[in-house]
Amino acid sequence: MKTVLVGVGQAGGKVTSALVDFDHEMGFGSIIGALGVNTAKADLQSLQFDTVLVGQDRVKGHGVGGDNELGAEVMQSDAREVMAALDGRITAEAESIVVVAGLGGGTGSGGAPVLAKELKRVYDVPVYALGILPGRGEGAMYQVNAGRSLKTLAREADSVLLIDNDSWHSSGESLEEGFDSINANIARRVGLLLASGEAVEGVGESVVDTSEVINTLRSGGISALGYASAEASEDPDENINVVTSVTRNALLTGTSLPNAVEADSALLVVAGDPETISRKGVERARRWVEEETGSMQVRGGDFPLDSGRLAALVLLGGVERSGRVQEFMQRAAAAAEEAEQRDEESDEEDKLFQNEDLDNLL
Ligand code: GDP
Predict the structure, then answer these.
(1) Could you tell me the distance, in angstroms and rounded to a whole number, from the CA of residue 10 to the centre of ligand 1?
(2) Could you tell me the distance, in angstroms and rounded to a whole number, from the CA of residue 224 to the centre of ligand 1?
(3) Where is GTP bound in this sequence (predicted)?
């Protein structure tokens, strides 16, 4: 799927960078353009692609400090500059636009929904978002911001591919230490998904096509992606269990959104040397995905790759009713309530102090 990426905010820029690097290293050529957008000048400096600094009149290049309402406002007022920078990059070749952002911060959290809306207004290709959820250990502000942003983003974008920062990082690392490895993991998985419809070698009936990705995401709302791989045998008949077990692992343990299994639609892509892919294994794996997700719309296809391993990518569309998303929304709502209560309490305290001041005066 020929894609133009727009990375908004710090996480958005870094994840976009990782995706661009992976696509380049693999020689896929599915990312045909990238742009970084931020309110913080320093965060744009390390990016290898063109960038736009927004909100200079409001924050003078210093970022919005986690204020996602301000993030949304500056994106709204500078939308024209961002759209102008994208003009000419989103060519007729483009099959999708992906807005990438961390949902817990300020610039990406507030800016991504505004930008997605603007892009949808102007372009005919699907506008997706790659949204990063704060990990459980991140503070209340991150949860509140992400809750708000996710709701709006799911409404504005054609689908929000959601990645929980608690997934895909090695245990024993702090979240910050883990960012590079999380970003590399995101890049590998999302990069393979974007490239999966691009295969030119071994084009045949079973090869997955870009339209399957688009159709799987057509149900809108929130989507998730699972991935797992394993060593393969040269004989496809010996790989029945390899295909079924990588599929199970992709959905049950290798997903971007743990425990999000119920879905409206799904796509199972089996990647590897076409000579080694067991058709029987693929058929069984697909039926298993149908049972597990409760979806009658499970598409499938191969992604021919020169590799001694077999991998499964499972894309789930319409997971917003799954337990994981509901749990996150409750966590965000509880954090918002607590923050409100704290505000009220500090208002009360302010009043008390004011009264004391008055008392002292009298
Ligand atoms: P912004 O620049 O104001 O949009 O804020 P950030 O992009 O820093 O957003 C903060 C959120 O993104 C937090 O939930 C962080 O955990 C997460 N985050 C920041 N940097 C990275 C990164 O490089 N990778 C990932 N996966 N998450 C990040």
Answers:
(1) 6
(2) 19
(3) 10-14, 106-108, 138, 165, 183
User: What is the phi/psi pair of residue 163, to 5°?
Assistant: -125, 120
* Protein residue with its CA nearest to atom 28 in ligand 1: 11
Work out the number of other CB atoms within 10 angstroms of the CB of residue 60: 11
Q: Which atom of ligand 1 is nearest to the CA of 14?
A: 23
Ligand 1, pocket-test mutation among 10, 141, 170, most atoms within 8 A of CB: 10
Q: Which of 54-63, 195-204, 346-355 has the lowest mean pLDDT?
A: 346-355
Q: What is the pLDDT of residues 245-298, one digit of tens each?
A: 999 999 999 999 988 889 999 999 999 999 999 999 999 999 999 999 999 999
What backbone torsions phi and psi does residue 159 show, to the nearest 5 degrees?
Answer: -165, 145
Q: What is the pLDDT of residue 349?
A: 60
Other beta carbons within 10 angstroms of residue 296's beta carbon come to 9
Ligand 1 residue neighbourhood (C-beta within 6 Å): 9-12, 14-15, 64, 102, 104-109, 132, 134, 138, 142, 165, 175, 179, 182-183
Which residue segments constitute the domains of the chain, with CATH numbers given?
3-198 (3.40.50.1440), 223-317 (3.30.1330.20)
User: Would you state the structure tokens that stand for residue 339, as one six-digit string?
Assistant: 């923050």
Over residues 89-135, the pLDDT tens digits come to 999 999 999 999 999 999 999 999 999 999 999 999 999 999 999 98
Mutate to test the pocket of ligand 1, among 165, 169, 174 (most ligand atoms within 8 A of CB): 165
The whole-number pLDDT of residue 178 equals 87
Binding site per annotation, positions for GTP:
10-14, 106-108, 138, 165, 183
ipTM of the complex: 0.99
